[in-house]
Structure formats: C-alpha cells, structure tokens
What we know:
Blueprint: E1 9-11, H1 43-53, H2 71-88, E2 124-136, H3 140-145, H4 156-159, H5 163-167, E3 171-176, H6 199-206, E4 211-213, H7 223-236, E5 241-242, E6 254-258, E7 261-270, E8 275-276, E9 279-280, E10 291-292, H8 297-313, E11 318-324, H9 335-346, E12 351-355, E13 360-367, E14 373-380, E15 382-384, E16 402-413, E17 418-435, E18 438-445, H10 461-485
Parallel strand pairs: 2-3, 2-15, 3-4, 4-5, 7-10, 7-11, 11-12, 12-14
Antiparallel strand pairs: 1-6, 2-16, 6-7, 8-9, 13-14, 16-17, 17-18
Amino acid sequence: MKKRKSGGIFPFSPLSPAAPDGIRVFDDETTEIRGTPRIFFSERNEKMNSNNQNPLPQKKKRKRSFSPAILVPFLLIGLIVAVVIAAKSGDSPTPVTAGEDPATTVPAVTRAVPPEVPIAEPHAWTTASVGVTGDILIHSPILSNNRTSDGSYDFTGIYEPIKPYFESYDCMIANLEVPFGGTEAGAYSGYPLFNCPDVMADALKGAGVDLLLTANNHSNDAGHNGLVRTQNVLNEKEIPYLGTRLESTDSFVKVLEINEIRIGMTCYTYSYAGTLNGLPLRNGDTVRVHSFEYGALEAFYENVQKDLDEMRAGGAEFTMFYIHWGNEYQFSPNSYQKQMAQRLCEMGVDVIVGGHPHVIQPYDTLTSESGHKTLCLYSTGNAISNQRHQYMDSEPTGHTEDGVIFGVTFEKWSDGTVRIGSLEILPTWVDYQHVGGRYVYRILPLDVNDGDWSRYQPASLQQMKNSYNRTLALVGAGLNGYRSSLGLEAVPLKID
Length: 496
C-alpha cells in the first residue's frame, strides 16, 4: 500500500497553547502565507517609452550640387541588384546545378519557426488526505484479555491488521471514547464508567493515529481529575486532540497544515444540563468540554460561527467538524442531526463526521441555498468495542461490530483553486476469536481490492462479508452518488 504521509501535520492556530515537541504551532507574528506574485516593470522600457514620446530634434540638411555623369555607376549597380533579386524570387530557393559556380549562386534562406509552447492544463499540485474512524470503546473484556502476565496491558494487537490503512492517510483521526483516569480514579474499568490504561494512547499512536477526539459523553467518566489527566497524558505523548481543553483561554480549534494545505478542525459533543453521561461537570469543567445542548441550538450555531471565524483567521482553506450526536443503535440520523448538519452546510462547513450511535449511519452530500456542498457521514460506528451481536439484546443484528474509515482528500490546484477530491469509505469489522486461552480482538479492513480476506481468519470469512454488506447498505448509495459526480468508479454494494 502506498504510504502518503509525506508532509507531516502541523497544528496552526493563533490561539493554541504551547504544543509538544514535533508539532508546529504558529501565531500571528510567525505565520508565513504565500502571497500573490508581484509584477516588476522594466525601468529601461519605461525610459524607452519616454524617449519615443519626446524625439530628438532633426538637423537641417545642407544642399549639394552634382553632375549627371555621377549617376552612371549607380545605375549599373542598381541593374546588378535587380538581377540578384529576380534570382531570389519564388517560393523555393534556386538550386545549384552542374556547371554553376556555387560562389555566384545565392544560397537559400530558411527561417526557423519557433515551436508552439503547450499551455499546461490545471492540475492538483498538492493533496492532503484525512481519515476518520469510529469509537475506541474499551469494555472490560477487552481490558482483561489484553492484560499481560506481568499485570501490564498491551493493546497493539488490536490494530495490527488495520495499521497499514491508518498509516496511508496524511492525518488519521479516531474518537477516544474513554478517559485516562489512571489508578487515582480507581481500577481500570469498562461500561458504564470507563477508565482505560494510558498505554492505549501508545497503541493508537503506534498504529498510525495522528489526532484523537476527546469530546464525547464519556469524557467525564473519571471525573474532573480524569478529564484533566487525559489531556496531560496526550500532551506528554505528543498526540494532538480536539474537543477538550485545560484552560478557558485555550482554543477548541486547530488549523492543521498538511502538505501546504490548511484544514480547520474542531469537535463537539452533546450534553444535558451541564452533565455528561449523567455526571455533572464540576470545578468549571463546562468550559473545558466543547459541548452543545439540543435545547439551545442557536447558542451552538453562534459558537460554530466563532469557530469558523477563528479557522479562517488561521488561513484555513477547508473546514471539518466532528460531532458526537444522535441516538444510540439507530441506523438513521434523527431530526436534530439533519437540522444541525444542514445549518452547518449553510454556514460553509465542508465536512461533518458524526459519532455516538455505535452503529454506522448514512453518508449524504448536502447542498446549501447558495450551492455550497458539505460531505456528511452521520455516524462512523464502532472502531473497537465488545458490543458483539450475541451480547446486544437491543441490537442483535451485528451492526455494533461494524465501523469505517471515512477518507477525504483535499486538493490545491495550479490555477489557485482548492477543492475536495476523492471520497472513500473503508468498512471495518471487529474480529473476536478464542486463541490460546483468551479472546483476541482485532480491527479487520474489509477492502474489496484485497482478494484474500481468509488469511485473517478463515472461520470468520462469512461474518466479514456480512459486515461489509451491512455497511454498504447504509452508506453505499450516498458514497457512489458522490463518486459518480467526480467520475470515480462505483464501490460494490454487496459481495457474496
């Protein structure tokens, strides 16, 4: 697989706090933006133009006397010149034939015709690819089955099959739906109050994840200390994040510069009366989480406008919003999601990626009254969880085992325009096998261009196909509709 991480990722926000080493954060004084080329006029040409407008005065000619005999030599010379000119007349030069003296023959004159310079067609001279996957939801069975003999945890095996796909994007993003509360918050735990070991951050970074979303309904599961500690852990491990902040003066917005393309991003989660997951946000934590309430959407739109203004002030050429919203285990967006998505489209947001329902919801291309297009995936589903179909009485169909990588490619063109290019949705499925006395969890890529899915686990081949078909039934129509508008090949909606 081609690795596209060529340019690196640089958060770019005038209001960002100091970033960890390896992450470039620019303020207004150090921002370098390519300007419009200036045209320099030649000083010499200006002087020549001036001289043409003011010619030098001509001297008076003095009359001379002459004799008619003087004209005879000049007439003879004129006759010779006329003969030479007649020899040169015609479309082709006179060839030299046998017996002629080449020295007295006028050679042919061939004029070089300058070659036509082709005009370059407009083309994308740089691109930036962004991939987004769903919920990192670490339930208790995942914790216990990834504990090593010395009592530590190792989650790297979960991401081994999907790692090449994560790494193929210039910027790979995942929704971290667990806090890093540490042992200070008590024992590590799963649902209903999650608390995950810090090494999960190392496993995600090692698998190619570049940025994490930290605003969701489980951000407060480990309380105030967990909310703050999660951010400190990510800062120490040099993993950028969106959705939460340590201080009220920190920004919820980042503008990433990827391969000379700037993309503004932010993340929101729903809340209710100052609570997340039924837990009150204490110690001023309401300002530490980028949240909205369904009963106060006008306030949400005001905040969105402020975010957009900040992104554009930072030079953003594209904008992406990640929103934790909707109803759990519902395959369709609710009325709030549709209303909010359309309003953000009207405000000029380019891409919306949703999460929270723990199942995939459809993709749609929205259009504003002014004609602006917004790419919207209402829900990415679960990237990793223990929500197996056999355990889900409320949703036993297997949809909670399904996830995606939602991939968007941004382009900057030689004619000065910027545009969204290709759109990809790679289905994923959580494999669950009993191996060596424990259960092994892995995120498997359901790539139709890979003809050998059986190498992952032959016994799971039909389950993988079922997962692919479930996902494409939800996103296929919208995905192929967009790809068709770009002249791209349609994605198969079903495999047998």
